Amino acid sequence: MSELMDLTGRRLAEAIRVGEASAVEATEAALERIERRDGALAAFVRVTPELALAQARAADRLLAAAGDGPVPPLLGVPVPIKDLNMVAGLPMAAGSAALADFVAPVDDGVVTLLREAGTVMVGKTATPELGLPPYTETDIAPPVRNPWDETRSPGGSSGGAAAAVAGGMVPIAQGSDGGGSIRIPAAACGLVGLKPSRGRISTGPNGVDGAALATSGVLTRDVRDTALALDVLARPWPGDDRLLPRPAAGSFLAACDTDPGPLRVGVVLTPFITPDAPVHPEAIRAVEKTIALLEARGHRVEQVGVPFPAEQWQPFKDVWSVMAAQAPIPPEREHLLVPLTRWMRERGRGVGGVAYANAIANGQQLQRQAASAWADVDLVLSPTLAQPAAPIGSIRNDADPARDFEDQCAYTPWTSTWNILGAPAISLPVHRARVGGGEAGPAEPAEPVERAGPVEPAEPAEPAGPMLPFGAMLGARTGREDLLLALAASLEPDFAPGS
Asked: Alpha-carbon distance 37 to 42, whole Å?
């Protein structure tokens, strides 16, 4: 039954509903894949076979009792939880030796919603310390490895979740995104990764919004799995003050079957926050392929500019530093943190109240500037990452954490803007190519071409290296996940066909 893990989450749930497989069989298949494959990838920091099988048996009993009646939409589907979210009674180290003794007293809200949707919690997936960098390399576990090339990182901070899905161990994995942490590993691992709008997925009932940059979500191999998971997670909790309208189609899954167009899509290749960052030619090719797919479907594609000067992003270093400083680390365990975290926390403690308030106000102003700059288009298209999946150890820099942070920004120069804007963005696995050596590619011209036209086959890299995925990212206005999902579903049949 190991092949069950090759199915999408929806197809697996259907197989369980109609009796082609049981929830226990699906769970055993996931546990077998994890046992066989995770030794090489290190996607999981904790596997929970007893809990998973108990939940699977309960799912099979529920299905039997339901007869022909309705059952939860993901009944029996294995879905691990990122180790930044609490699962009652389980340790949650958040990638840090400083939190190694913490045991979660309650379930986080997203864990509750996934359980109510019928999912089976097979384990906790790896995250870098406190979810801060876009690589998943900690001091408490081996580095997580990319299933496409085990010398490379799957990205972060939802790196373990991405490796689990791309490695065929589960069809869906929960993740979170505060500056790209779903979309970065989605691009590095050839997956679908949606960052929902601010407020679409509640932090309740236990969490608070704080700077409101981060949101929960999932990583999947399939656009409709992402849509179904959003339907499950986009439920309010008491006390929420951001209630976005539901899609006109009635659900995000139904939105995937609606006609999204014709649309106006703006293309921007210039990195938003690090304009001089080198952009790999295959990252550009991912955008060119997406343009060709869009134009073939009758959408209008045009050049747009960056939404704001790069220097206006700089105050958000203060916001991220304060977020790091807020983490409840016992003072006597501070020395166990990695150098990047200590550097960010020290920086955050030095940010005054007025400076922090100004940084938050600056973000609100950037929302208005971006809305004005992109008023004439429905969606904005860019690469997801400036480079292919990064070789393990190539960004982490314990000797110079400030340089570490700068290199993170150069690797991910587009993703964090959508967190600041509070708007939804999705990374799609549109392209694959062979790359050699792992070095940064040459910088591309700052201005995108007027239109892509026919896309020529990529020149093979010399020397030929591993086949790696490249993502293209589409962003929309706040609340328009339905539009992103409808367009993504229409493009999905042509994602990276044999390239």
From this structure: 9
- 8 A C-beta contact, residue 131 and residue 326: no
Both tokens assigned to 207: 């969490």
The region of weakest confidence among 93-102, 348-357, 411-420, 428-437 is: 428-437
Residues above pLDDT 70, as percent of the chain = 94
| pLDDT tens-digit series, residues 437-451 | 544 443 343 333 343
355 in Cβ contact with 347 (< 8 Å): no
Which 8-state DSSP code applies to residue 5? Answer: G
CB 178 within 8 A of CB 156: no
DSSP helix, strand, coil percent of the chain (3-state; round to 5): 40, 15, 50
DSSP per residue, 25-73: HHHHHHHHHHHHHHHHH--EEEE-HHHHHHHHHHHHHHHHHHTTS---T
Q: Which two tokens stand for residue 399?
A: 């000797």
DSSP 356-371: HHHHHHHHHHHHHHHH
Does pLDDT of 182 surpass 70? Answer: yes
- CA angle, corner 479, sides to 475 and 485, nearest 5? 55
Choose the CATH number for 2-494 among 3.40.1080.10, 3.90.1300.10, 1.10.10.10, 3.20.80.10.
Answer: 3.90.1300.10
Fill in the DSSP letter of residue 135.
S
C-beta of residue 217 within 8 angstroms of C-beta of residue 195: yes
Residues marked active site are found at 82, 157, 181
Which amino acid, one-letter code, is at 345?
Answer: R
The pLDDT value recorded for residue 2 is 75
Q: Is the pLDDT of residue 320 over 50?
A: yes
Asked whether the beta carbons of 110 and 199 are under 8 A apart, the reply is no
> In this structure, are residues 140 and 93 in contact, taking their beta carbons and an 8 Å threshold?
yes
